[in-house]
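In this supplementary section we document a worked example of the pipeline. Step one takes a protein sequence of length 287 as its only input; no multiple sequence alignment statistics are reported here. Step two produces a three-dimensional model, which step three serialises into structure tokens for compact storage. The input and output of this example are shown verbatim.
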Amino acid sequence: MDFGPLLIQILNAVQYGLLLFLIASGLTLIFGVMGIINIAHGSFYMMGAYFAFTLTNLTGNFFIAIFFGAILSVLIGSLLEWALFRHLYKRDHLQQVLLSYGLILIFEELRSLLVDDEVHAVAVPAWLDYSIPLGQIMTYPMYRLFISGVCIAVAVALYVLITHTRIGAMIRAGTSNRNMAQILGININMISRLVFSLGVALAAFAGMINAPASAISPNMGMQVLIISFVVVIIGGIGSVWGALLASLLIAFAETFGSILLPNYAGMMTYIIMAFVLLWRPEGIFKQ
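The serialised model returned by step three reads:
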């Protein structure tokens, strides 16, 4: 029996789930620590993809482009938090949604002015541009395995940061109770800026690392925004580990649902969300 097709689908689900985790982990941290509903989060994913396209063309090297793109993402995240989002901590969610929606429009207009409205692509680095055999006749792109490996490395680094560092302890405290953390002497404003910058960088990095594996197109951020919020709802607000579990759960449901139940594949994610909300409204991992 040839297990190649099954293994390919498993690898596709893992790669999609890990990439979704990078996007959603930043979103859940921002909402958990800052209490900010940021519907512009998908725009940061799009921004990363266009950084990869533009900087690769300028430098001629995809990995140099990622390096400078990550630095730019952190700077942009820090600037946005300082200029805009820090003024919204004590305001209602409607104002947060309106501000972040305005950012979506600004990012889309800037993309159109600075690049264009065409679909673009980034070439796979030459040393990763090959496939490995799986089963008797199937092959799998090495770059997709590379994406999974990089996402795992980032997830491990995030785990170490949050659970084994002083800054991570302050982030956890801010997630549990922002006001109490401030009373205990934690500079919650500094932590908020750090978390927002980290969230922007994670989403942008996901866009950069996935650029050679998918098309770079207008409004691509909206395609991941809704599913990222679903991940946060299923995993639990503020829980990075909940985001990881929810991302993999959704990825496997969508990947195998499209094969086993093709007529209902688009509903699988929302069916899972409905069951989780009925069973545990606060999400799988409550903070």
